[in-house]
Amino acid sequence: MSAINVEIISQLEDNYAFVLYDNTREACIIDPAESMPIIEYLNNKNLKVKDIFITHHHKDHTSGIEGLIKNFPQVNIHSPNPQIENSRFILQNNDEVESRINSFKIISTPGHTLDHIVYYDDDNKILFSGDTLFRLGCGRVFEGTLNQMYSSLQKIKELKNNTTMYCGHEYTINNLNFLENTLNKKVLYNDVRQKIESDIKVHDKSIPFHLDEEKSYNLFLNQESQIGELVKHELKLGNFELFKYLRERKDNF
Asked: In whole numbers, what is the pLDDT of the chain averaged over residues?
């Protein structure tokens, strides 16, 4: 398989969908919330869509499916939940699924929802994390438990450091503000703030981002970084306790 391109499509107020394609003009889509911006991009690029991949059942990740099917009636819908309308292939943990242009390993990441999965492409070193992991944050726990979300994030933490991450929402500045204010350690986040603000200025978005950098700064993901060890010592907390402390405070931030 040839190298793939990833186009980030802004959706709704702060959602992202993704169009993956290669030089064959074949394409697949991840988490469509609005069909029209995606269809316009596909038409402009003369791309043919064969597969749609869904991370979880929330409407802001699935509501574009119907419009895409009307324009591409042969498209295959892959999802973790048979209750997601038009799902043809139901995916589970450790499944390997191939589109026309790449291969994904499915990783189950319950917490935000019970059905949540993420899509990992080892050949291209990319991960589509939906609402499990955000840059400097993680998803709110709606259906699962804090223990489930913590375990799900540990699965992502174990992936290769050179993995490029694509998440489902633009929450980065809010996440950064939360960490700076909650930890009272703004100076430790000076470099990452400059990098994020530069990304947004140049690209109008803060994604994609890289797993090795997240391990240094995202205390929801990694409590064993230099910053994490400092905070754990000050608060007298273990790894899970620090995650719980941060997630509960972020819910009210």
From this structure: 96
CA–CA gap between residue 22 and residue 102 (Å, rounded): 9
Q: Which residues pair with 118 in a beta bridge?
A: 107
CB 72 within 8 A of CB 56: no
Count CB-CB contacts under 10 A for residue 77: 20
Count of structural domains within the chain:
1
Taking the alpha carbons of 156, 249, 196, 229 in that order, is the dihedral positive or negative?
Answer: negative
Token duo for residue 108 = 């189950």
Query: Looking at residue 1, what is its pLDDT?
Result: 54
Comparing C-alpha atoms, which of 133, 64, 72 is closest to residue 100? 72
pTM higher than 0.90 for the full model? yes
Contact 120, 105 (CB under 8 A): yes
Segments forming the whole domain that contains residue 20:
5-250
As a whole number of angstroms, the distance between CA 252 and CA 150 comes to 19
Residue with tokens 């895409």: 68
CATH code for the domain in which residue 113 is found: 3.60.15.10
Helix 172-183 with 239-250: angle, nearest 10 deg: 120
